[in-house]
Specification:
By secondary structure, the chain is an all-alpha fold. The chain has three helices and no strands. 4% of the residues are buried.
Length: 84
């Protein structure tokens, strides 16, 4: 498992330690929100940089895709991030 995913998993598990079905459902919701927040933070950070350097939107999108892919190890095999 990717190291960042492990860290977020641990964080979600600490927030929702209940092993019941309801607790596991809450854990999944928390983990999903943490991953989404991480993606949003990547976009916000890159958007600020892109704005300062007057990047076109497509370049910003490509950098964000790359950073999200790298952060979560989605394509560890080196394949392209998304198909066009």
């Amino acid at each position: 498992m990717n190291e960042r995913i492990k860290e977020l998993w641990d964080q979600a598990a600490k927030l929702e330690p209940d092993p019941s079905w309801e607790g596991q459902t809450k854990f999944i919701e928390k983990l999903t929100k943490l991953v989404a927040e991480e993606c949003m933070n990547i976009i916000v950070q890159n958007r600020k940089y892109a704005s300062q350097h007057k990047w076109p939107a497509v370049e910003l999108a490509n950098v964000c895709l790359y950073e999200i892919d790298k952060t979560f190890g989605v394509h560890e095999d080196g394949k392209e991030t998304v198909s066009s």
